[in-house]
Specification:
globular, Rossmann fold, 10 helices
Length: 353
């Protein structure tokens, strides 16, 4: 299967490396945003040996290659809704797309923009192509792993999927400060605090779980909590001053049968000792699924090294592999917008080669 990788950031670089190692996949093109990357070898951009594939900013040239699939891994301004025009062009050209950029599309029926969803569905059907979005959270630990755990259940009162993370290594200041409020005083209103934002951001995995279990979500309740740093904390995007936000906790709860039944929770810290009364972990990135039911079920997932930047790199690799491993299944699927409920478990191929 001929594959193009769209963007060469952290996730895209992992995808390039993984595809180059697979005998069933062939890397035929790479799209880059930065002019200084144009013409460079894809292997060089991914930090591996040269692969003989030059990066380009010419989307038409990549579409003309008629690849079987595009791994869409653009970040920053290309995330989510801003990627839709690219998806439309690719799907209309009959090119399957697997994406880590648009997490709101892990369950397409709940997508926040119904008009765009309809356009994507029409483009996919007319081009005879499929679209699938995934990742680690959402895309796996917040939804598919939770559903897998429920196969042990007799009855369920509540499912809680959570991420507990130390994000002091994340370097993008506007996301961390303006988007989430880190390093800002408590009277600052980050994007997360906008009415409906948390509900919109996390309704996709909630509705995916609900659909898998055959229940209807009546509404989603969202909440945001913040706690102060008691000292200056140096992080990748600057310094968290004492008396500003050092930890953020978000909660989105899907109400089914009149009660909060499916909960997605995030706890993000800039240092381990901030917000000590919130859920903690010995690892820099921990994912949990807790099911209150018969029986009670508790699953803890960690990635990479317990401390240091290894956990962040491991999460990035896991995110990339969620879509790379899905390529054969998406290429073989019916045309349209897919979720994890529509394709088999995306078991990896050639992992022991």
């Amino acid at each position: 299967m001929r594959v193009v990788v769209w963007s060469t950031g952290g996730v895209g670089a992992v995808a390039i490396d993984a595809i180059s190692r697979r005998p069933d996949l062939e890397l035929v093109g790479v799209w880059v945003h930065s002019p200084e990357k144009v013409g460079k070898d894809a292997g060089e951009l991914a930090g591996i040996e040269p692969l003989g594939v030059a990066a380009t900013h010419d989307a038409d040239a990549l579409i003309a290659l008629a690849p079987d699939c595009v791994v869409y891994a653009a970040s920053g301004p290309e995330r989510d809704g801003a990627a839709v025009p690219d998806y439309l062009r690719l799907l209309q050209a009959g090119i399957n797309v697997v994406s880590t950029s648009s997490t709101s599309l892990v369950y397409p029926p709940s997508y926040f923009a119904p008009d765009w969803r309809e356009q994507l569905e029409v483009a996919a059907k007319s081009g005879g192509a499929s679209f699938y979005a995934s990742g680690i959270f959402p895309g796996f630990a917040s939804d598919q792993l939770a559903l897998l755990m429920t196969t042990q259940s007799k009855n369920i009162r509540c499912i809680t999927a959570s991420e507990i993370a130390l994000n002091d290594h994340y370097p993008v200041a506007d996301v961390m400060m303006d988007g989430m409020g880190f390093g800002r005083p408590m009277d600052f209103e980050p994007m997360l605090s906008q009415p409906g934002f948390i509900e919109m951001a996390w309704k996709a995995p909630i509705h995916l779980i609900a659909s898998g279990l055959g229940v209807e979500v009546e509404r989603v309740n969202g909440s945001l909590d913040r706690q102060l740093a008691d000292r200056d904390i140096d992080v990748a995007f600057g310094t968290i001053k004492a008396g500003t936000c050092g930890a953020v906790r978000t909660r989105a709860a899907g109400v089914a049968n009149g009660r909060e039944a499916i909960v997605i929770e995030h706890v993000i810290r800039m240092a381990r000792d901030v917000a000590p009364d919130w859920p903690t972990s010995d690892c820099d990135a921990t994912y949990r699924v807790d099911i209150d039911g018969d029986p009670d079920i508790h699953c803890v997932l960690t990635l990479g090294e317990a401390e240091g930047h290894g956990a962040g790199r491991a999460a990035m690799a896991s995110t990339a592999m969620r879509v790379v491993n899905a390529i054969p299944y998406v290429v073989g699927a019916r045309p349209g917008l897919l979720s994890s409920l529509d394709i088999p478990m995306t078991l990896p191929r050639h992992v022991f080669d």
